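User: I'm putting together a teaching handout on how multi-component assemblies are represented. Below are the sequence lines for each component of a complex, exactly as they appear in our records. Could you produce the 3D structure of the whole assembly as structure tokens, so the students can see both representations side by side? Please keep the chain order the same as the input.
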Amino acid sequence: MQKIFYIHVPLAIVSLGGFIFGGLMAIGYLRTGDRAWDMRSYVAIHMALIFGIGGLVTGSIWAKASWGHWWVWSEPTLVSFLIVILLFATYQPLRFSIEDPERQARYASVFAVVAGAFVPLNYLAVSLATAYVHPRVLTLTSANLPPSMGLVFVVSLAGIALLYVTLWKYEMAAKNARSQVRRLRRTLLGEDTVRPAGRSAAPS
Amino acid sequence: MSLVFAIAPALPLGKSGKFVAAAYIVFVLLILVYVAIMAVRAQRLERELQELRRDVEAARAAQDADDRRTEAVL
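Assistant: Of course. Below is the structure of the complete assembly, with chains in the same order as your input.
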């Protein structure tokens, strides 16, 4: 059963780290006004959300196998993680609801910073909670893992973190290439040859 | 493949083994779906690039024809 641990926990940790990373990138946008930072923040949060959903589903499977329930509402770790996921699930609708690209980037960055700051605070609050059934292998002060599991866990965590970074770079490259093609078309053939992008949650 | 099966232990598909397999299948599926979406986007980008190249070549050809006509008139 512990084999699920090697995928569920790294997915959850990398996802939470990704949300914080998105908040840090958003600070970059608010400081400089450079749209590249907004793009970085958007992709970081987008990827973290996918990893978070992976963490939720694998955690639910683990819960069913260990506790006999797909979900335990009285468990603070599960519910707090769901709250974080739901909070960041509103990020894209927020972006989509704002048409003006400048305002969209600014409001989304403020959201990303505030929600990103909520992640460690939420973790701290859950760590201080006394009643839980969720296994507590990583606390604020130590890691309660036997050495044989610890090494595999560290390798899994590094692997999932590298996967996150790779997919983040991959999506950044794809988005940058698309925007450069549009810019090139505009430069070479004139403004009217570029189809209007339409309203989008993604930075243009 | 038979060598792999010979040296690999049997999959522990007991009661909990099925849950472990399900969790890893979910993870692999998630990655596969993401990569498939990115592949579709990459194809779209490739099409846009081809379209751009065709449009630029057409615009250049039209410009050359205009230049030749102007030279002929002069």
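A couple of points students might notice: Chain A has one domain: 2-193. Residues 2-193 of chain A form one domain.
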